[in-house]
Amino acid sequence: YFIIEEVTDKDVRIPISPQAALEWVEKTRTGALSFMKFRNPPKDETVPVNDIDLATQVDILFEPGIPFSQLLKRAQIIDMQDFSFSVASAGDMLELKTRRPDKTEADLDDIRFLKRLLGRCE
Question: What pTM does this model have?
């Protein structure tokens, strides 16, 4: 898995080493991280969007903006063969994405999808 620093229409930018990833996290002080795998091993910091394996995307929130206890109450539990984990509800995901001040085009797509999923089309 690789941390995603930036996404454009054509490619994504990743820190290619653990040290570069740590430096990026410390510099940006982001409240969330996105991790993804790629179909082909990355050769440098810029990876074509077509190489992203979207099914592997994992977003981790450090400062969610909704109290953790409320997120956990409404979360869906995903059971895997050897472990389970909690996933924020669609309603909470919509709230988190909507509140985000630095929305990307991907965030706007997510908001439209979540609104349709929840029957809140505008």
Answer: 0.58
